[in-house]
Structure formats: C-alpha cells, structure tokens
Amino acid sequence: YSILCHIILNMGLNLTNDFFLFCSWSYFAIRLIHSIFQATYNLVWIRFGLFMLSWIVLAMMIIRLSINVFI
C-alpha cells in the first residue's frame, strides 16, 4: 500500500521526496519480514514488535503528508 501511495503522491500531488521513498520501502521490508515470521516461527512478541515498527513508519508518513498538505 505504501508504495502505491508513493506513486500516487508523486504523480498526482507532487508531494513526494526521499523521506517518503525511504519510508515506503522501509514499510514494505518490515511487513515482508513480519509475514515471513508469521509463516515460519509465529512468535507473537516478534510479530507484534514488527507490526508496531511498521505502524510507526506509516504514521510518520501520514504526519509528514498532513503537514505538507495542510500547512
């Protein structure tokens, strides 16, 4: 989802920069690792930590976008 959002921001609103690109790929990588842990080890505390880390990255993107659009 975050990669698609990055493409939409770049094409439609022209609000993207290196921060959004880094966050998008970080979110993707963290969610991929989360899925691998879920499919193999399924340790809930590791999955929860990875999920929270990905959520923090996504929240940073949302906050930065809100600042760019509304301020």
Layout of secondary structure:
Blueprint: H1 2-13, H2 18-39, H3 44-70
Give structural notes.
This protein has helices at residues 2-13, 18-39, 44-70. The protein has 71 residues and is an all-alpha fold. Helix 1 (2-13) packs antiparallel against helix 2 (18-39) and helix 2 (18-39) runs antiparallel to helix 3. The longest helix is centred in the last third of the chain and has 27 residues, at 44-70. The chain is elongated, with a radius of gyration of 14 Å.
Largest sheet: none
Instruction: State the low-pLDDT regions, or none.
Output: none
Strand content: under 5%
Helical residue percent band: over 70%
Roughly how many Å is the radius of gyration?
14 Å
The number of helical runs is 3
Note the main attributes of this structure.
single chain, 71 residues, mainly alpha, 86% helix
